[in-house]
């Protein structure tokens, strides 16, 4: 997953929002997730072969549910979002059972996906969320010390339902208010988390002076070692020279005696 153009494409909704969707709309499946960032036990993901053991149903585009409630927060790639919007519309057309999708995408109003969702006959509710009012779980939350990141775009939330889902999960103002409130409440927890890493105050000048002093001390130590080595070598040579002179004197005296 780390090779898929960065972790930004794998950011997820926050826990409070997922819980609100479950409690108010019965949402319990994510259309775009991975074993690393899923909230629900069942989800769609790109790699069925490796993710199946963790609850994956495979690619959303190979998934054809007839009923259920789903959350769709796709990678923010225009082609992917357009393909998702078409697939959701077709799924809603081809069933009479209760089927519901909560779609979360950036507020790129000039994209085909936005146009398809906005014009869908199954659209029951829509609302904007300003980027300063919400955030996401990071895509690599399994290895990242930061759990949340602020939104970089305004967001559009589309709730699409067929008639059976409208009866089962009425999309009233009370439920929408709860969803918006959870976005705001989660933000209050999100921002401190992002900025909560401890700050280490470092006196750069003090570090620089200490470094210079250490270097000077090391230099002095090396010089002392070199001097001691030279003295030791010089002492050895003087001793050897004295020995040779003594031998020469002794040899000369022997010759004189002879």
List keywords for this structure.
258 residues; alpha/beta; six-stranded mixed β-sheet; two-stranded antiparallel ribbon
What's the number of helices?
A: 7
Compressed to H and E, one letter per element, the order equals HEEHEHEHEEEEHHH
Please give the number of β-strands.
8
- What Rg, in angstroms, do the CA atoms define? 37 Å
Low-confidence stretches: 185-212, 233-237
Major sheet strand order? 2-1-3-4-8-5
The largest sheet, given as strand count, sense and whether it forms a barrel, is: 6 strands, mixed
Binned strand content: 5-15%
Helix-strand makeup class: alpha/beta
Q: What percent of the residues sit in helical stretches (DSSP H or I)?
A: 40-55%
Per the principal axes of the C-alpha atoms, what is the gross shape?
A: globular
Average pLDDT works out at 75
- How far the N terminus sits from the C terminus, by CA atoms, comes to 100 Å
Structure, explained:
The protein has 258 residues and is an alpha/beta fold. Helix content is 47%, strand content 14%. Helix 1 (15-25) packs antiparallel against helix 6 and helix 3 packs parallel to helix 4.
Quick structural summary:
Helix content is 47%, strand content 14%.
């Amino acid at each position: 997953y780390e090779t898929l153009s960065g972790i930004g494409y794998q950011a997820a909704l926050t826990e409070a929002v997922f819980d609100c969707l479950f409690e108010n709309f019965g949402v319990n499946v994510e259309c775009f997730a991975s074993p690393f960032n899923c909230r629900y036990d069942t989800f769609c993901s790109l790699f069925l072969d490796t993710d199946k053991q963790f609850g994956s149903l495979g690619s959303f585009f190979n998934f054809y549910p007839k009923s259920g409630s789903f959350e769709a927060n796709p990678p923010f790639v225009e082609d992917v979002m357009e393909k998702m919007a078409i697939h959701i519309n077709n799924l809603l057309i081809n069933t009479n059972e209760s089927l519901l999708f909560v779609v979360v995408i950036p507020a790129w109003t000039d994209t085909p996906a936005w146009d398809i969702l906005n014009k869908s006959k199954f659209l029951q509710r829509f609302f904007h969320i300003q980027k300063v009012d919400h955030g996401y779980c990071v895509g690599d939350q399994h290895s990242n010390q930061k759990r949340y990141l602020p939104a970089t775009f305004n967001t559009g939330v589309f709730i699409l339902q067929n008639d059976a889902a409208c009866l089962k999960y009425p999309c009233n103002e009370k439920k929408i208010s709860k969803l918006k409130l959870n976005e705001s409440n989660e933000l209050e927890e999100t921002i401190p988390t992002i900025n909560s890493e401890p700050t280490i105050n470092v006196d750069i000048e003090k570090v620089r002076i200490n470094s210079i002093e250490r270097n000077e001390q090391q230099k002095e130590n090396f010089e002392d070692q070199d001097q001691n080595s030279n003295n030791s070598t010089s002492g050895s040579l003087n001793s050897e020279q004295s020995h040779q002179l003594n031998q020469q004197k002794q040899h000369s005296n022997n010759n004189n005696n002879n």
